[in-house]
Amino acid sequence: MLGTVSKQLRSHPALIPLFVFIGGGCVMCAAYLARLGICSPEVSWNRNGNPEPWNKLAPTYQYKFYAVNLDYSKLKKEGPDY
Amino acid sequence: MAHPSQLGLQDAASPVMEELLHFHDHALMIVLLISTLVLYIIVSMVSTKLTNKYILDSQEIEIVWTILPAVILILIALPSLRILYLMDEINDPHLTIKAMGHQWYWSYEYTDYEDLGFDSYMVPTQDLVPGQFRLLETDHRMVVPMESPIRVLVSAEDVLHSWAVPALGVKMDAVPGRLNQTAFIVSRPGVFYGQCSEICGANHSFMPIVVEAVPLVHFENWSSLMLEDA
Question: Do the Cβ atoms of A64 and B88 come within 8 Å?
């Protein structure tokens, strides 16, 4: 199948940018889903070893993908210590 | 506030709204350029006497009109995502106010230091004083200190409402049984108007929001006066 595709690409090079951008989109979707599964504090894969991951967050933990203006290392814990 | 025959967004009164304004200009400029190009192409295609029956395909133009739109979309997406993340950032608020939606008025609670709460009903048209704005004024305004990060917790006591102030770039749905959080900083003193933004019954259009931003000293005087009156 790859042989057919590469033969068609040689005669129709306009398909290459299409593959690049659609492929890029698919990669970004997969990366987002993977990030949700791995980094989301609400996801627990191991019920015995890691039962409540949301309880382990430090106030300086960067849970957002991109920090524009916020310096996470300067955040302090709000609320009482248990 | 909005004025008659206004076409664009209201003047920004908060840093987030400034960012949104600039982004809107950026996106609108791109849209205008593309529309002008398309219109020009349509007119030139329709008004030409040339005919060509033998072109079947062209790889070069296909490459150009794949890459160029993708680049344009990325140029729109990157500032948009930046503003999205900026709007979500925790900003260590100095004051927390609860805005509760009712049918058909808002009530505000300032409970950080003392127990201050009041209702905010629209001023009926027949009771307006010259200089006031029809369907926008309220009997009690939500007064906030300027240049301070404010957190607003929005909820509702009966049906869905939505707390919105366009000049501050803020809109948050008021859902009964749910607490939604939004935050803003008012960059300049002034009075900023908004209206309920979720259909909530007969008087949905008649429960406006008025935010008055004043220097901190004036805010402290106002809250003392309101506590005495209560």
Answer: yes
Angle (CA) A74-A76-A81 rounded to 5° is 160
- Separation CA A11–CA B26 (nearest Å): 38
The minimum CA-CA distance between B16 and chain A, rounded to whole Å, is: 12
* CATH for the B93-227 domain, from 3.40.50.1950, 3.90.550.10, 3.40.50.2000, 2.60.40.420: 2.60.40.420
Q: Which residue has the tokens 């003193």?
A: B189
Identify which of A17, A70, A75 has the shortest CB distance to residue B66: A17
Compute the mean pLDDT over every residue in chain B, rounded to the nearest whole number: 95
Q: Does the beta carbon of B65 lie under 8 angstroms from any beta carbon of chain A? A: no
The complex scores an ipTM of 0.83
Question: How crowded is the C-beta side of B117, counted as CA atoms within 13 Å?
Answer: 8
pTM (two decimals): 0.89
Q: In chain B, which residues fall in CATH 2.60.40.420? A: 93-227
